[in-house]
Amino acid sequence: MILAADQRSEIERGLSVARDRPEFAGESFWLTYYLSGNALADVTEELAALGCFNLDDPNSGFLYAKQPCGTDAATIIEQIENVSSICKTHLVEMLNVDLDTSPNVERSAFEMLVRFDD
């Protein structure tokens, strides 16, 4: 699914804000996708094929999939579009996407990149 221009701008703004924070001085980060729906089990295999992890509990109604990423806005937007397409196919709602400094939630700083309001 192609993101709207305002969503792309929101992601670019979020990346800019993150880059200004010392916690985001590195080159390797993680996207966290906040997903909701009844068909989460249907998306886990496809998300894993895209390098996502933290897919262990799809029956809870929520899934917090993580995906490694760099710092290039165009590549991050493409990653989000790919996950969004999978979700749309399976009627899974993507609530928002964060950029994280670590896959470990207890040690990670984050910056919200985009919120999807349907």
Structure description:
There is one protein chain. This protein has helices at 5-19, 40-49, 73-89, and strands at 29-36, 62-69, 93-100, 110-115. It is α+β, with helices and mostly antiparallel strands and 118 residues long. The chain is globular. The chain has a four-stranded antiparallel sheet with strand order 2-1-3-4.
Number of strands: 4
What value does the average pLDDT take?
Answer: 94
Q: Alpha-carbon distance between the termini? A: 14 Å
Q: What's the oligomerization state?
A: single chain
Strands side by side in the biggest sheet = 2-1-3-4
Number of helices: 3
Estimate percent helicity: 25-40%
Tell me the radius of gyration.
13 Å
Low-pLDDT segments = none
Strand content: 25-35%
Helix and strand string, N-terminal first? HEHEHEE
Which structural class best describes the helix and strand composition?
Answer: alpha+beta
Give a quick account of the main beta sheet: strands, pairing sense, barrel closure. Answer: 4 strands, antiparallel
Shape: globular
